[in-house]
Amino acid sequence: MFDDFSGLTLPAIIIVCVIIAAGLIGYFLYRKKTAGGKEITKKSQWTTKELTTAALCIGASFLLSFIKIFSMPNGGSITPASMLPMLAFSYIYGFKKGFLAGLCYGLLQFVQEPFFLAFPQFALDYLLSFSLLALAGLAKKSIIPGILYGCGARFICQFLSGWIFFGMYAPEGMPAWLYSLGYNGAVVGVECAICIAISAIPALYKLFNRLKAQTISQRKAFAQA
């Protein structure tokens, strides 16, 4: 079913990813509605502050992903909380904007370490794995549950990818699902623990909550305007 994608060259895939990312950004930036002949910006439109923060968080996560504390033999590595900037952005600004920022970050991850077997593997390892970090935006009063939501979603994506596409790396006699469970559980679990430990630092914890409260207040003020 997905054999048609096997002929795609790496440059072509990268170009497609860039085009998709640019199109999504353009869509959310310029989507507007007209009411009574007057153009009104939708609530979903990004502010300059949100765009700047998203760019900084994507850049911070991307740079941190190059710092590898430990590299696993068959892909994946432990980094100094490279997911935390994306998780924090999603927690502060919500799921929808976090999803788009995470999608852009996932495409950058593919450019950094491209590995393409089939489109479902690409979607699980790069698109969904990082865009679903946006589930951190569902947390209400603390970033800690949000980190668990986002990391849990990433683990599920990578577990499925490992089980379906990388089962050949499992030791002889070990089921592919069990190998993927242990392998990806170790990578994502340690990364998640690092993110929780850093975000639990009192100054950062209070900062994240204050920024989220400010965002909620601004949205309420916008809704009442």
TrEMBL record:
Keyword Plastid listed: no
Transmembrane domains' residue ranges: 12-30, 51-70, 115-135, 147-169, 181-205
A single cellular component GO annotation: plasma membrane
An example Gene Ontology molecular-function term: thiamine transmembrane transporter activity
Record-linked Pfam families: Thia_YuaJ
UniProt KW keywords: Membrane, Transmembrane, Transmembrane helix
Record-given protein name: Substrate-specific component ThiT of thiamin ECF transporter
